[in-house]
Design a protein that fits this description.
9 helices; about 60% helix; mainly alpha
């Protein structure tokens, strides 16, 4: 893929971690939770934007931001800076939120809540040739005990439901479709 989806993947993973934070437990637990969020966002973004044209259109029109997701999840944006506060380089402190993609976040939530669905999604990526094997996404598809403890909120189906249900039908259709067709 010629267009880099990294900003969308990073922002969406960051949103997931902030909306469903890991329990206190030190840097290892946080790193495990971040790895799971990043893997889920990566798989979701690659499924959502399978072709270069899809990704280029995303970059051109923008992903939409996290406003609706924040309201649905109850994420408190005040903790991370009010709109109008500025970071060290003069950009709004929460400018990263504009790169959050609602559909990618919803699909990632679906994958985090259901490792079997995540395995199906990773297999679909492998068929399409868009990268990754089950081993590359092991924390997402086959989480261990440490992974589950580190991401207890991030993997809780009931907590993820409001976000996951937003676009679950489109994810299921995308997994049944031709892997080279653009996702809905």
């Amino acid at each position: 893929m010629s267009v880099d989806l990294t900003p969308v993947i990073a922002a969406t993973a960051q949103w997931l971690i902030r909306a469903y934070p890991p329990p206190p437990g030190g840097p290892l637990g946080r790193a495990l939770a971040e790895a799971q969020a990043r893997q889920a966002a990566t798989v979701a973004a690659r499924l959502r934007y399978p072709g270069a044209l899809d990704a280029e259109l995303l970059v051109m029109v923008g992903p939409g931001g996290s406003d609706r997701l924040d309201r649905l999840s109850g994420a408190d944006t005040a903790e991370y800076g009010e709109y109008g506060e500025y970071g060290e380089y003069g950009e709004p402190a929460d400018a990263w939120r504009t790169w959050v993609d609602e559909v990618v976040a919803s699909w990632a939530a679906c994958l985090l809540a259901d490792p079997a669905l995540a395995a199906t999604a990773v297999a679909a990526l492998a068929v399409s040739g868009d990268g990754g094997t089950a081993a590359d996404f092991r924390r997402l598809t086959a989480p261990g005990d440490h992974d589950h403890r580190a991401a207890a909120l991030l993997r809780h189906p009931d907590l993820l439901a409001p976000v996951a249900e937003l676009h679950r039908p489109q994810l299921l259709r995308a997994l049944q479709a031709d892997p080279l067709e653009p996702a809905c």
